[in-house]
Write a structure and sequence with these properties.
Elements: E1 6-10, H1 15-26, E2 30-34, H2 46-55, E3 59-62, H3 76-97, E4 102-108, H4 130-149, E5 153-158, E6 161-162, H5 171-185, E7 194-196, E8 202-203, E9 206-207, H6 208-218, E10 230-232, E11 238-239, H7 240-250, H8 256-263, E12 264-266, H9 282-288, H10 296-313
Parallel strand pairs: 1-2, 1-3, 3-4, 4-5, 5-10, 6-9, 7-12
Antiparallel strand pairs: 8-11
Helix pairs in contact: 1-6, 2-3, 3-4, 5-7, 5-10, 7-10
Length: 328
């Protein structure tokens, strides 16, 4: 008789966490979700400890984090606490009270040196924001507790994961929403271009449900020796300008290359950023049998299609004001 597995998911209502919860339900898990409202979390760990001891889950997934890297400069200690020391506390509680429980951390490619062009598991760590610094600390905590305390713990080092469930403050979602606005206003007196900056940065855009799937795959290893950290991405990189052009074409706007300057205006207050992020997920393919099925063009198309459906269901009268680029 097979025992039904149990999982505790922190950040269960966020983008990746919600897709993981859907997947776990499909696989007949008992799922305990925690929304990850940071003001309500007991940072000393007593709440997590009581949940862990009461339910003794087979697997704990931590997707709870403060996500917007530029904002981490406004409150670096809060990002350090939420994205860094909370993970250390969770690992220590698991080690003390439930060492048989497996632990997954949603990591970030923001820990890498962006001058490295391509990034894999051993690429030099060189975060350039308090967000990236906190994420690096959390990753190192996972590694130390795995190597020194024998926990079956691992980090998925995620590159840009996109879906309609991601907040519209992020670049890909903003662009999808704005190209639909352009499509609806094209040829009218109310037509105004998208305002963007920094279109030379290169990113690796993937499909979030696939990344939730590989998080689960990483946790299905049985032996301690099988637990490792993995870079998760598509292996493709494209500029932000390419993303915008592809979105404009997906929305059906005419002569995108010819009319690009009509569709897009530039905010001169944003200086160019020429860094490049490109995952090298070879280890995930080799050891987990996982590779991204949806690549750049698929991701852009699906985001735009979702935005078109959303606008059909709930017509918007106003455009998104003050659109500027964020790249993670």
């Amino acid at each position: 008789m097979t025992t039904q597995k149990t999982a505790l998911v922190y950040g269960s209502t966020g983008q990746l966490g919600s897709y993981l919860v859907d997947l776990l339900h499909e696989k007949d898990y008992i799922v305990y979700g925690h929304e990850g409202h940071f003001n309500d979390i007991d940072w000393e760990g007593s709440l997590f400890q009581s949940i862990l001891k009461e339910n003794r889950p087979d697997e704990v997934y931590n997707f709870a984090a403060k996500m917007y890297a530029p904002d981490s400069w406004k409150d670096p200690m809060e990002y350090w606490k939420v994205n860094g020391t909370m993970v250390l506390s969770m690992l220590d509680i698991i080690q003390q009270h439930c060492p048989e429980t497996k632990f997954f951390l949603a990591g970030s490619a923001e820990v890498f040196d962006k001058g490295s062009v391509m990034q894999w598991e051993d690429t030099n760590r060189l975060p350039d924001s308090p967000y990236g610094l906190a994420k690096m600390m959390a990753m190192e905590a996972v590694r130390i507790y795995r190597e020194q305390k024998g926990l079956r713990a691992c980090t998925g080092i995620f590159f840009n994961a996109e879906s309609p469930r991601r907040k519209k403050t992020f670049f890909a979602q903003k662009v999808a929403q704005e190209v639909v606005r352009l499509k609806n206003g094209f040829g009218t007196n109310g037509f105004t271009p998208i305002v963007l900056g920094r279109l030379d940065a290169r990113r690796d855009w993937g499909w979030a449900p696939e990344y939730a799937e590989v998080a689960w795959k990483m946790m299905q290893q049985d032996s301690f020796e099988s637990f490792e950290d993995y870079v998760i991405g598509t292996g493709e990189t494209h500029t932000c300008r390419e993303f915008v052009a592809e979105a404009l074409m997906a929305a059906g706007l005419p002569d995108v290359e010819k009319n690009f300057e009509t569709y897009v205006d530039y905010d001169k207050t944003f200086s160019p950023v020429g860094n490049c992020m490109r995952a090298m997920p070879d280890k995930a393919k080799r050891r987990l049998g996982w590779q991204a099925q949806y690549k750049f063009k698929d991701v852009v198309r699906m985001l735009v299609e979702s935005a078109l459906e959303e606008h059909k269901a709930q017509p918007r009268e106003e455009s998104i004001a003050g659109l500027t680029q964020t790249t993670k």
